[in-house]
Amino acid sequence: MKLDVSNSDLTTLDGIDLTNITKLFCDLNRLGTLPASLPNGLITLRCAVCSLYELPATLPDSMSHLFCSHNLLTFLPTLPINLVLLDCSANNLTYLPTLPPLLEFLDVSSNNLTELPALPNSLRDLHCSGNRLVVLPKLPPFLKKLNCNSNILVELPDLPTSLELIYCNDNIAKFPATLGEILLVQHNEKRKLLGMKQVDVVTDDEIVREILLFAKYDLDSENYKRAENNLNN
């Protein structure tokens, strides 16, 4: 059952029967807080722009989608284990709790974060622009979109070959303009470690092939050269 009380000039949800509610939309109110106990079957909670300074200490494990952007939050409680989408952008967060293992979409843009916790392998979209991040953690193997604009990044971690879109402008380090150029720079750094000459790879397919070869042969120079020769012959 869905309950939508968005933009209703509410200051509290007390007195509203939330029993059996699976989707609660209460955006654009002046709540400050939410009820301490939310329905056990709640799946989606939208509470953006509500002047919230905290969330309930315990969120239902049934919850899969949480939208709590544009509030006054300085911390988040333990996150539900089944959460797949979290949008907590535009708050005052200084750290994040452990991220759930099924999370696919994470937006923590416009906060005061100096680091991110370990990212789950399930993550597909990561938006962390407008923070104070110096480095990023290891990126998930199937990540498709990364926005890390406007931080103080000094380097990027290895990028997964699944990545389709990246924004990394306005950082301390000046990163190449395109995804292909970033992958090429990282690839040539690995070749340099092996004492191999730098290459000027011009297509994304060639970059991906080279990176996969490095991954398969664990930067073993002789094995890599043999595999590269076999592909070229």
Blueprint (SSEs and pairs):
Layout: E1 2-4, E2 23-25, E3 44-46, E4 65-67, E5 85-87, E6 105-107, E7 125-127, E8 145-147, E9 165-167, H1 179-193, H2 204-217, H3 221-232
Parallel strand pairs: 1-2, 2-3, 3-4, 4-5, 5-6, 6-7, 7-8, 8-9
Radius of gyration using CA atoms only: 22 Å
- Overall geometry comes to elongated
User: What is the number of E strands?
Assistant: 9
Following the backbone from N to C, one meets helices and strands in this order, namely EEEEEEEEEHHH
How far is it from the N-terminal to the C-terminal residue, by CA? 62 Å
- Structural class by SSE content: alpha/beta
Q: How do the strands of the widest beta sheet line up side by side?
A: 1-2-3-4-5-6-7-8-9
Strand content: 5-15%
Biggest pleated sheet:
9 strands, parallel
Helix run count: 3
Mean pLDDT: 84
Poorly predicted regions are: 213-228
Q: How helix-rich are the residues, as a percent range?
A: 10-25%
